């Protein structure tokens, strides 16, 4: 039997993922780089070298799991987001590139050298809170989640990325937050309707439903956040929320009805409406 090269291993894995993944080659490349701890440039250059039996065994085991649908991020144990590498587990939503638009808009509204208070509701892995903390060293960020398992992951990520300007608190939205007001509140809450067919496809099948599904046609948690946010915002403070591409109109209506001004809608990497920012005026 001819020994497998790394390139041959990659080709074999790609073929075995055709039926189960929309991105079989990319998945195989990520997992192989993870196993051998080498870059894609190394694979391109040295791909014809013989694959070690240890690498083959570990890699093919991961490919088997990926063929069952287990997300690549869970198999590797991390996901890169913004400028950070974040640990992920089954307790948290996998950070997505589309959420980076929310981070961008938050940073646009936070002065670099001005002390600023930021609240991230439902932080999960800490993706939003930690990205803001990394870019704005003068900001103090409070990251909350009602699930302590998720909050532990976020704390680990803060330590891994050496971020000291983030605090953590278990809270179901605003319920456990002390009487304080923030310059900016950000949130990527659950916003998928319980009967949405996407929940039966791809990575969503393995991610925690508590981070995905919301009542009231997916708008329940968004409505709670929008309605209660004014009590926790300073005059001229900002609220920025991520939502479904088909929820933009309802979110804008709720935001305006709650007394916000300067409402703006922003699109994700696929040019779909993904997050809304609004300012709380001097009421």
Could you explain how this protein is built, in words?
By secondary structure, this protein is of the alpha/beta class. The chain is 36% helix and 20% strand. It is built from ten helices and nine strands. Helix 1 (6-16) packs across helix 2 (24-36), helix 2 packs antiparallel against helix 4 (53-67) and helix 6 runs parallel beside helix 7 (127-135). The longest helix has 15 residues, at 53-67. It is elongated and about 70 Å long.
* Mean pLDDT figure: 93
- Sum up the overall morphology in one term: elongated
| Rg value | 21 Å
The helical percent reads 25-40%
Percentage of residues in DSSP E strands:
15-25%
The end-to-end distance, rounded to whole angstroms, is 77 Å
Task: Provide the structure class.
Answer: alpha/beta
Entry keywords:
elongated; 7-stranded mixed beta sheet; two-stranded antiparallel sheet; alpha/beta; 283 residues
Short description:
Helices cover 36% and strands 20% of the residues. With 283 residues, it is α/β, with parallel strands linked by helices.
